[in-house]
Fold each of these.
Amino acid sequence: MAPKKNDDILTYNGKMLLRKGNEIYYGSPDGKYMVLFKILESEKLQDLDIATKVIVELRTNEKENSQLMRQAERDSLYKAFDIGFYWLDDALANY
């Protein structure tokens, strides 16, 4: 399913996808959990920056009191999204 842009907010599978610097947040603002992707390293490929080291974190969605539930490191943004999207769907299904 392709990402959709509605009202200047990028969504994927009905959940918000927001980037702030080298961090990408994925989840519903009112959901119990969210996923945080931290891009730690990247390399240039022509005029694009390609992520080569990404930390994936499944966290509770409680603002300042957010707790880390799961964490992993991946070598590409694609692989990070793959595990992060699965973790969030699984956590929300079991909530």
Amino acid sequence: MADQIMTIYKIATEAQWADAKGNGIFEGAPIDLADGYIHFSTASQVRETAAKHFANQSDLLLVSIDEKKLGDALKFEVSRGDQLFPHLYAKLSLTAVTNVVDMPLDDNGNHVFPVDLPL
């Protein structure tokens, strides 16, 4: 169990992710830079995050991150609805990324998530 990957998620635009790949590091979206840390969501939080902050936005990617590779710079802090959200007080090294998938919109304008995304 100690080696189990604990996955957290970042929703990023295609342009933000292209910049990150070009630089070899993700510095954060504008909201992250303004707040001083990179906002992440757990699997049970990411759908609500998408609906609340990215409604009807079609150029998005769901980035999966192995939280154990982030070290002590990752903090779980109380945020929306008194839930603990993961916040990274550092730049995101792409070596911690385990997967990147498109987040298309369905016919109702809702984001489509991978079927294997745990709740």
Amino acid sequence: MTESIPPHSHCQICGKAIPVSETFCSEECKEKYNNMMKKRKLMVYAMYALIAVIVILFMLQ
């Protein structure tokens, strides 16, 4: 027979089933997410800086 699955969401890091109102299953997953976002933001800034350096080098030639 079919079982009724209550409404739920999944943790963005590990994929565990959690209540709909929550985003992460634990503080550990929340911390991993925050660290991942910091690294991603740093990579975006580094990419913009690299593009700026390349544009400046082409303008100087």
